[in-house]
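[job 0412] stage=fold_complex status=start
inputs:
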Amino acid sequence: NAGVTQTPKFQVLKTGQSMTLQCAQDMNHNSMYWYRQDPGMGLRLIYYSASEGTTDKGEVPDGYNVSRLKKQNFLLGLESAAPSQTSVYFCASRSGGRWDGYTFGSGTRLTVV
Amino acid sequence: GQQLNQSPQSMFIQEGEDVSMNCTSSSIFNTWLWYKQEPGEGPVLLIALYKAGELTSNGRLTAQFGITRKDSFLNISASIPSDVGIYFCAGARGGQGGKLIFGQGTELSVKP
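[job 0412] stage=fold_complex status=done
writing structure:
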């Protein structure tokens, strides 16, 4: 009954460091999404994947890359972290066209110093 | 990037009061969704609206899809302390792979 699991929950990076945020879902959902949430703003889409092996840019993709090699995993990479990437990152997954099945993880809080 | 205009940004109310918040957009959406987010958690879906004019309830929550398809509102009746959190509206258009556009959120505080 895990749903969408994000790791790590917290991370501090130095400017220029790289890291990968991990997202796993156990609901056999086809589509997966990465959003970022900044204070006073709603969530903004970074990248999404409609199916295993496919990815597309969202609203704010610059500075990020993604990988969907397995259906259950969607990875978000930061090649060279910048302070502007300090944010809370949420992964979500969705089954087909169902909005009631659009499930979010509990987030990764990333600070870049 | 596009975001929905959600108001108010924050509300401080007494337990038992009714609450109303709304979301507007300059463009049309096919689906409106309302989410609640509690500290340290991701958003959780409260209500989904699929047709213009649709009015849907979920317990003490009622939401409506505006007839112009450019707005939506959420009402909470007889608020209780566990209603505390941030409420987000989100819009979706068909054929866009499930991408959501979110409002800025309404932070609700309830005094017992």
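[job 0412] summary: The mean pLDDT of chain A is 94.
[job 0412] exit 0
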